Amino acid sequence: MSDNSHIQHKAHGYGVYVLVWFALLALTGITVAVAGINFGGLTVATALVIASVKTYLVLTIFMHLRSETVVFKVFIAVAMFFLIISFVLLFTDYSFIVRN
Amino acid sequence: MSSSEHTVSHVHRDDVASRMGMWLFLFTELLLFGGMFILYSVYRYNNPDAFHLAAKELNTIIGTFNTAILLTSSLTMALSITAIQRNNKSLSIFFQLITVVLALGFMVNKYFEWGAKFHHGIYPGSNELLSKPAGEVLFFGLYYVMTGLHGIHVLIGIGLILFMTYYTVKDIITKDNYMKLESAGLYWHLVDIIWIFLFPLFYLIT
Q1: What is the pLDDT, as a whole number, of residue A1?
Q2: CA-CA distance, A49 to A55, in Å (whole number)?
Q3: How far A48 CA lies from chain B's nearest CA (Å)?
Q4: Of the candidates B49, B83, B66, which has an alpha carbon nearest to the alpha carbon of residue B198?
Q5: Alpha carbon B167 to its chain's center
């Protein structure tokens, strides 16, 4: 049984997953409900914020990031950082081209 | 990683490295879909009204239903790992099979959804589609490529999970060695995350 030493996961109980699932379904309901309301430019932002919250829940609980070592968290932060950078740089560049 | 030094000598494996390898693979998937999301955002930025009009053609109810199905399949995948951690083999297999059934349900919905679009003459290169404004052609082009690529990932996921079920039945995946199942789960949750973004961006444009 000492074999367990290389399984570093603190196992989540069934209940935690069911709770997260409820939260994800509720957030989906909110996105759909909110989509009917026109916030102007904020409509897309609202949808993306809710999607990000859902992603955070899936990453931390379903994908067990909460119980991973800090190396994993840094890796993922770096990967996300570069994805976001590519969006930000593209849009600063692109809006400049469009304006001129 | 001091923990690996404690590993029993006859077990030549490194679970942390397996998971990290899987995450590295997932980053490449992130960039694959990320590139498409960049394409999407630029075209939407250029054609906000056409994207708005074209999105009305999509069935929000099927989209919402499919989102719920995929989220539930992620739940059952996570539960199957907890079950194997608690040495409950048959429950784990049960949850894995439920995951597969839900994934198939997702694909069946996609089949009917795409089928309805095809029936209305909206498919890449059709005369009906090409007669629409350029922005709407772009929207449907992106719709078919991105949900199509996502659909391929769902199909691969189904195959992967079925392999895991086979391994679980054969006791290759056990309470003490379930990293294969864990990695398949990571893949499945990523497919779920991609859909979490595809859903509002295609179905809920107002």
Answers
A1: 39
A2: 10
A3: 7
A4: B66
A5: 22
Name the token pair of A98.
């469009």
Is the separation of the CB atoms in A33 and B202 below 8 Å? no
| Token pair of B39 as six digits | 């394409």
Name the minimum distance, in Å, from the CA of B38 to any CA of chain A.
6
At A43 the pLDDT is 80
Helix (H, G, I), strand (E, B) or coil at A64: coil
Asked whether residue A5 carries a pLDDT value surpassing 70, the answer given is no
pLDDT of B72: 97
Quote the pLDDT of residue A12: 73
What value, to the nearest 5°, has the Cα angle with vertex B156 and ends B150 and B161? 125
**Residue ranges per structural domain of chain A:** 10-67, 69-100
Number of H helices, E strands in chain A: 3, 0
Put residue B177 in one of left, alpha, beta given phi > 0 → left and psi -120 to 50 → alpha: beta
Q: Which two tokens stand for residue A67?
A: 């119980």
Instruction: Say if residue A36's pLDDT is above 60.
Output: yes
Domains of chain B (ranges; CATH) run 16-203 (1.20.120.80)
Amino acid identity for residue A50 in this structure: I
Look up residue B192 and give its DSSP letter. H
How many of the other CB atoms lie within 10 Å of CB of A70? Answer: 7
Give me the residue from A20, A37, A87 closest to B38, CB to CB.
A87
ipTM of the complex: 0.89
